[in-house]
Design a protein that fits this description.
By secondary structure, the chain is an alpha/beta fold. The chain has 29 helices and 19 strands. The protein folds into 3 domains: 261 residues, 2-enoyl-CoA Hydratase, Chain A, domain 1 (Alpha-Beta Complex); 180 residues, 3-Layer(aba) Sandwich (Rossmann fold), CATH 3.40.50.720; 86 residues, N-(1-d-carboxylethyl)-l-norvaline Dehydrogenase, domain 2, CATH 1.10.1040. Bound molecules: (S)-3-Hydroxyhexanoyl-CoA. The site of (S)-3-Hydroxyhexanoyl-CoA has 26 residues, from helix 2, strand 5 and helix 3.
C-alpha cells in the first residue's frame, strides 16, 4: 500500500503522507507525491493542493537508508519531485508540523506556499551527513529566506523555529489550531492567485549578496574554526554563492555536481554511518522485549565537586529534583555556588532566562546527610576514585536507599561488580560514567555489571535521552570503552617524547588529524596532576617531574607548555630540559620521529585496543566505540570514529603498521586477533 493517499475537501486535493517514523522521502513516498500532483493537474475540479503528513512530523528528509542504493536515483528522484511540485498548474500549499528537514524543506520550498504550526522546526541538516540540500535547496532557500539566513542554515545544519521562519519569509503563515483545516482554508484563499509564486524564479532576496559579494568570505572567516576539517560546509557555501551569481537553471546543475561529489566522498559515508551509529547505541542486547523502565522522579548525587555538580545540573535542567550531599558545609556551599555561577554564565549568553536559572536551582536540595537520599529513585555517587571509599558509600546506601532505587557510580575506571558486591542488591547497581564537564559533554557510558537488572539498563538509556545525552553500554573492564582506549595513546605519546618527539609535534599530528587537541594539550587542560601521587621527591616519569615543579597544566600557567596571561601556549624550554634529562638517565639516543610513526603508535594502537574491547565483549558493537570517541573525546565525526576510520585506512595497513612498531610498543602489546582476522579476511571492523 502506498504511504501516500489523496482525498478531496471541496476543490482542494489533500496529499497525505503516512510513512512512520519520520515520513522520510523514500521511493514510494516520492512516487505517491508525484501521482498526487499529476491528479491535481489532470482534474479540472481541483483548484489547489495541500501537502501534509501524519504522525510525529512532516517529511524529515530524504530516506538516508536509501543512499548508496539504486532506489535513491530511481524515478522520481527528489530533484525531479520538487520540480514537478513547482510546475503544478494549481497552487500547492505545504502544511508543516514537527520537522521539515532536508528534502522535506525542499518539498516545502518547491510548493507555492508554506504554512506551519508554531512548534514546527525547519532546517537543512544535510551538512551533518556530509552533504548539501541537493534537491534545489541551495538555490531556492536563499531566494526565499535570504542569502545570509540560507548560509547559516545550510552550512551549520541548525534548524530554525517556525516563528523565525515566518519572520524571514520562509513561511507564509503561522497556524494556530488544526493544521489541516487551516491549510485547506489557506489553499481556498489562494486558489485563484496567478501567476503562482515559484521560489526558483524569485530573486529579490539575492540582492543582499549581489550588493555585498564579500559576505561569503566574511561568513567563511567567521566560521573557520567550526568548519575546520569538514568538506561539506564549504560545498554548501559554494552552492549558495552560485545561487547569487548564476541563473537558477545553472545553479541547480552546479548543486547537483557538488552534491554528487560530496556523496561519493569518505566524509559523507562517515557522517551517515555515524547518524545510524548514534541511534543504534541506545539498543541494548539481551534485554527482554517490553522491559519497562523504572520511574525516576528524584535523583540523589553524592559529591558536590566538579563532577557531582555537573551531573546534578543535567537533571535540574531537565526539571528533575536533585538532593546533593557533601561531607563538609564549606564544600557543599562551594559546589552549589559553582553550579549557580555556571547557570548564570549560560544565562548571560542568552541561552537561559533568569527565571529558568531560578527554577533549576530551586529544584536543588543541598545536604550534609546521606540519609536524606532515602526518597531518591536514583542515586549517583561522584566522589574521588578510591575503591574502599566507594565500597563504604555503597554499603551505607544499601541501608538508606528505598527498595528499587538505582544505585549508580560515576567511576571512570573501577570495577562496578566489586562496588555492587558491597550491597545486598547488585541488580540495582550500574555505572553511569559522565564526561567532564558533565553538564556539557554529550556522552554517557552506562556500565553494565554482571548482575545489573535489565530494567535498570533500560531506565539509564531512557534517562540519558531525557537529559540530552547519548548513552553507550560498556562492560566492566579497566577504563570501560573510552578511557581504556586512551591509555595506549597516552602511554605511547609519552614514550615518543623520550625517543625524540616534542609535545608540540605530537599534538600537531592529532590536531591535523581533526582532534580538538592533542594528548599533551589535553593533559594541560585536564590537569597534569590528575592521579599524581603528590610526592614531589618521587620522580619516576616526565609527569612526576612536571608536577614536582608545579607544572600542573593550564590552571598553573605551566604544564607541557608555557602559557601567557591569555592562556595561549608556547613550547617550553624547561619541559624540553626535563625530557632531555630523562632521556639521558634512561640512556635513550633521540631520533627523528616521523608523523606517520606518531599515527601508528598513538592512533593505530587505539584501534587495536578498540578491537580488544570488542573481542572481550566489553562493547556491544564497533559503532558504539565510535560514538564514545566522537561524543566523549571530540574524534572528528567526518572520520566516523576510530573503528570506521580504521576501515577507511585499511585494516591490513593498520595491522602492518602495528607489527612494524611491535618492538617499540613493548612486550605488553597484544595484537587483537579480531583485528588481524578481519584484516586477513578483507572484512570491515566497523560492522562488528
Ligand atoms: C536529504 O534530505 C538529502 C536531500 O537534500 C537531497 C536528496 C537528493 N532517513 O532520530 P530518531 C530514523 S538528507 C531514514 O531516533 P527523533 C532513525 O534512524 C536527510 N531514517 O527520532 C530512527 O530509526 P530507528 C536530511 C531516518 O524523534 C527513527 O527514524 N534530514 C531518517 O529523536 C527515529 O529517529 C535529516 O538529516 C531519515 N532521514 O528525531 C534528518 N531520519 O528507530 C535526520 C530519522 O530504527 N533525522 N530516521 O533507530 C533527524 O534529525 C531526526 O530523526 C528527527 C526525529 C529530528 C527527524
Amino acid at each position: 500500500m502506498s504511504p501516500i493517499t489523496t482525498t478531496r475537501h471541496g476543490d482542494v486535493l489533500i496529499i497525505t503522507s503516512n510513512n512512520p517514523p519520520v515520513n522520510a522521502l523514500g521511493h514510494a513516498v516520492r512516487e505517491g507525491i508525484v501521482k498526487g500532483i499529476e491528479e491535481a493537474d489532470r482534474d479540472d475540479a481541483v483548484k489547489a493542493v495541500v501537502i501534509i503528513a501524519e504522525g510525529q512530523t512532516f517529511f524529515a528528509g530524504a530516506d538516508i537508508s536509501e543512499f548508496g542504493t539504486p532506489k535513491s536515483f530511481e524515478y522520481p528522484a527528489l530533484p525531479q519531485v520538487v520540480d514537478i511540485i513547482e510546475n503544478c498548474t494549481k497552487p500547492v500549499v505545504a502544511a508543516i508540523h514537527g520537522t521539515a528537514f532536508g528534502g522535506g524543506l525542499e518539498v516545502a520550498l518547491a510548493s507555492h506556499y508554506r504554512v506551519a504550526v508554531p512548534s514546527a522546526k525547519l532546517g537543512v541538516p544535510e551538512v551533518k551527513l556530509g552533504l548539501l540540500p541537493g534537491a534545489g535547496g541551495t538555490q531556492r532557500l536563499p531566494r526565499v529566506a535570504g542569502v545570509k539566513k540560507a548560509l547559516e542554515m545550510a552550512a551549520t545544519g541548525n534548524p530554525i523555529g517556525a516563528k523565525e521562519a515566518y519572520e524571514c519569509g520562509l513561511l507564509d503563515k503561522l497556524i494556530e489550531g488544526d493544521l489541516l483545516q487551516h491549510a485547506v482554508a489557506f489553499a481556498e484563499d489562494v486558489k485563484d492567485a496567478r501567476p503562482l509564486p515559484r521560489s526558483s524564479e524569485r530573486d529579490e532576496k539575492l540582492a543582499e549578496a549581489r550588493d555585498n559579494p564579500a559576505l561569503f568570505d566574511e561568513f567563511r572567516a567567521a566560521n573557520a574554526r567550526k568548519f575546520r576539517g569538514f568538506d561539506a560546509p564549504e560545498y554548501n557555501i559554494r552552492a549558495i554563492q552560485t545561487a547569487a551569481e548564476k541563473p537558477y537553471a545553472e545553479g541547480v546543475l552546479e548543486e547537483r555536481k557538488l552534491f554528487l561529489e560530496l556523496m561519493s566522498g569518505t566524509q559523507a559515508r562517515a557522517q551517515q554511518y555515524f547518524f545510524f551509529a548514534e541511534r543504534k547505541a541506545s539498543k541494548i542486547d539481551g534485554v527482554p522485549e517490553g522491559t519497562r523502565p523504572r520511574d525516576i522522579r528524584k535523583v540523589g548525587v553524592i559529591g558536590a565537586g566538579t563532577m557531582g555538580g555537573g551531573i546534578s545540573m543535567n537533571f535540574l535542567s531537565a526539571g528533575i529534583p536533585v538532593t546533593i550531599v557533601e561531607m563538609q558545609q564549606e564544600a557543599l556551599d562551594r559546589g552549589t555556588g559553582v553550579m549557580l555561577k555556571n547557570y548564570q554564565a549560560t544565562a548571560s549568553k542568552g541561552k537561559m532566562t533568569a527565571e529558568q536559572v531560578g527554577q533549576a536551582m530551586g529544584l536543588l536540595t543541598p545536604t550534609l546527610k546521606l540519609e536524606d537520599l532515602a526518597d531518591c529513585d536514583l542515586i549517583i555517587e561522584a566522589v574521588f576514585e578510591n575503591m574502599e571509599v566507594k565500597k563504604d558509600i555503597f554499603g551505607k546506601l544499601d541501608k538508606i536507599a528505598k527498595p528499587g532505587a538505582i544505585l549508580a557510580s560515576n567511576t571512570s575506571y573501577l570495577n562496578i561488580d566489586e562496588i555492587a558486591a558491597a550491597t545486598s542488591r547488585p541488580q540495582d547497581v550500574v555505572g553511569l560514567h559522565f564526561f567532564s564537564p558533565a553538564n556539557v559533554m554529550k556522552l554517557l557510558e552506562v556500565v553494565r555489571g554482571a548482575k545489573t537488572a535489565p530494567d535498570v539498563l533500560v531506565t539509564a538509556m531512557q534517562l540519558a535521552k531525557k537529559i540530552r545525552k547519548v548513552a553507550v553500554v560498556a562492560g566492566v573492564c579497566y577504563g570501560f570503552i573510552g578511557n581504556r582506549m586512551l591509555i595506549p595513546r597516552q602511554v605511547e605519546a609519552t614514550k615518543l617524547l623520550l625517543e625524540g618527539a616534542t609535545p608540540a609535534q605530537i599534538d600537531k599530528v592529532h590536531v591535523d588529524f581533526g582532534m580538538p587537541m592533542g594528548p599533551f594539550q589535553m593533559a594541560d587542560l585536564a590537569g597534569v596532576d590528575i592521579g599524581w601521587h603528590r610526592d614531589p621527591s618521587r620522580i619516576e616519569n616526565i609527569r612526576d617531574a612536571l608536577c614536582a615543579v608545579d607544572r600542573w597544566g593550564q590552571k598553573k600557567g605551566a604544564g607541557f607548555y608555557d602559557y601567557d596571561e591569555k592562556r595561549r601556549p608556547s613550547p617550553s624550554p624547561k619541559v624540553q630540559e626535563i625530557i632531555e634529562d630523562f632521556r639521558a638517565k634512561a640512556g635513550v639516543q633521540p631520533r627523528e620521529i616521523s608523523d606517520q610513526e606518531i599515527i601508528e603508535r598513538t592512533l593505530y594502537t587505539m584501534v587495536n585496543e578498540g578491537a580488544l574491547i570488542l573481542e572481550g565483549g566489553f562493547a556491544q558493537r564497533a559503532s558504539d566505540i565510535d560514538v564514545v570517541w566522537v561524543y566523549g573525546y571530540g574524534w572528528p565525526v567526518y572520520r566516523g570514529g576510530p573503528m570506521f576510520w580504521a576501515d577507511t585506512e585499511g585494516l591490513p595497513r593498520i595491522v602492518e603498521g602495528l607489527k612494524r612498531q611491535q618492538g617499540r610498543l613493548g612486550p605488553d602489546f597484544k595484537l587483537s586477533k579480531l583485528l588481524a582476522d578481519k584484516a586477513e579476511a578483507g572484512e570491515k571492523i566497523s560492522k562488528a
